[in-house]
Amino acid sequence: MMSSRFLLVPATIKSTGVFLLFLLSIIQSVNSLSTSVTTPPPPIKRVAVIGIGVAGLTLAHALENSPDLSSSSSQSNVDPLHTPIKVSLFESRTTLDFKAGGGLQLNGGMSVLRKINRELQTAVANAALPLTNIISRTKPWGESDEPFTALLKLNLKEAIQQTGGTTEEELIVDGEVMAYTIMRGVLQKILLEKLPPATAERVKYGKTLKRIESNTNDLDGGIMCQFDDGTSEGPFDLVVGCDGIKSAVKEYVEKGKISEDSAGVKRRSSIYSGIRIRFCIEDGDPNSVVEDESAEFKQYFGDGLYGLSAVYGAGVGEPSTKGAYLIFKDEDYNGPFKKKERSSSKEVAENSDWQQDIQSVDDLLKSSLDLIDKSGVPGIDLIPIIENADRVFELGVYFHNPFSLSGWSKEVKGSGGRFCVLTGDAAHAMPPFLGQGANQAVQDSYSLATKIFEYNDIVSQWNEAPVSSAADEEIEKPKTLQKLLKEYEHRRWLPTASITAKSVLLGYLETGQKGFLSKFRDAFFFVAGKVGIARKVFLDSATPKV
Question: How far apart, in whole angstroms, are the C-alpha atoms of residue 264 and residue 86?
């Protein structure tokens, strides 16, 4: 007789199999739910902009004052009552000095400003002067009665038309050549005053960023910004570093923290080129009956010195401002390397706030005239400006190594998937020898804004978007914020890295010392003008790439 214990075995096996099948069906149901229904990530509604230079103010306009960008967002069609993005801007300085700094050229940046807001671009154009020609000259070759030898002349409108294609489409718009000169302070003032009133109320001064951390007081997370005045602002969905070459946000992206000691500024990843620039600025005479209708850039080369004279728009109804710039090598450096015998010399100052040492102005002016005399640079346009200068500044030329393993963005841990990201000089500070710093900052801000709007569109349609499953791998997942920020970086990295490299080389070439180097430079510019290299280099940098 078979034991009852063995009779129970088949029944036990059967019940166990049923239980396992039941358990498997539950697991499959959970997996199905997890692949078909996901919690949408948080949209970007609160943006902290650190720094109110050209990059920061342009980004604020792109996010809050751009009819074209906001109308292109499908979010406005999906949810007409959607909450707009709110930008808060923080500036370390207690006030802005609109007389500080030198002049700028705007080309690709002006074209992109038009894409952001046509009224804003018109306001800038009205305050600026059209840039018509770029001229290069050097000290006379051999025995000559002429004060200089001409190397090249680039008529911008003709050069743009000859190039054609995207360059012409972007740099000649409705018959208007996108090439202007304007004082830095004037541009900054316009960008600030043209902010929407609600945005302008969110501009705060005297805010030096001290710490970036996650918001622990709210289940929704976010990023908190702590400042050295003891205040804390936030939470934010995105923090954008527009804080220049000594960017605290860049340090956070690279190291995950911001140095609390004053020496931390020196550790930030900028490279001193060993080249210095002296700015001599002459304000326009309000009683002058002669008005400048356009501007030219005139380069003058000598032994170890490069001079630039230019005239800049200083605002609607204001007389134009003249600038004479002297570019020369720091005698304590060989390129970016300090000479061993000069190792005990004190560190050079970046003077990013354009502070003028009043007691040294007379010495700087006299030294400037001595530099011209010693180098043989033709002073025909430079000397009158220097002798009548109202302000004098001197800065070292710094730049960032574009090859960084850290990239331009970083997720803040514990913030619920929020990021910090860089634009402008904070991302890619470059020497000014192609005149592209402000232009690239404007393009960065526009490009980043398009990615922010694209991300919010994705979030607003998250539950409608198809999500891949094990059985349907070919369906593309919605882009994450991390991926979109990388797309922004990849789009902007190549043009800015290329300009940085060219500008570094140009700086060393243009300050060539007496002998072979200065002769090689003169020959290079002469040939470059004849065969079109100068046109190609300039316009390739000027053409927007957003």
Answer: 31
